[in-house]
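Case study 2.
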Amino acid sequence: MEPIRIFYFSDALCIWAYIAQIRLDELKTTFQERIEIEYHFVPVFGSACEKLESRWKDRGGLQGYSEHVQAVANKFDHINVNPAIWTEDTPVSSTSCHLFLHAIQLLEVKRIIDPDDQMFERATWAFREAFFTQIANISDRNVQFEIAEELRLPIAAIQAQMDSGEAYVQLSKDFDLVKEHTVTVSPTLIFNEGRQRLNGNVGYRVIEANIRELLHNPPGEQSWC
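Prediction:
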């Protein structure tokens, strides 16, 4: 049986995607080769500062949003958030970060780095953790390279994927998929060729139940429900 294909859309600066990482890890442990997670980015924070200052102008601006993020994080024991989040060295856009991560992903596709090391996934988590715990400005290219160096990734090869335009192609494909599936929320999981989706802060058991239903009733087969 073919693995269940899951499109996973997220934004690197999204608190809910940061929270949800533990659920993805559990899914991979539980289902292993029975699922295939395909990672894509949705630019919820494509213009981060302008968006937040506009939408939160009557609720304290960036300071108000910072307090909101901290309040959300305090409900979960498995993550930490710096009290100065979104108020110091604020990232201007997640798009730069998404481009850089796609460059790393291309290194796996081209086997310049070993895909078994899962460096794309490790780098994505490292970027999120650096932002939320160290308030690192992960929209800044210098910060991105610093994180890549810490992961011992080949810097010149990453730069080459961006310089050639290939990383931009992957980012453009994300934009097309976001439009095709009308994705507006981070994170969003899409199953069953777009017929099923889970948006936002969805608990692990709900995600698991959707996958088990697809495994027991493969697409194309009749189901009483």
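DSSP finds nine helices and four strands in the chain.
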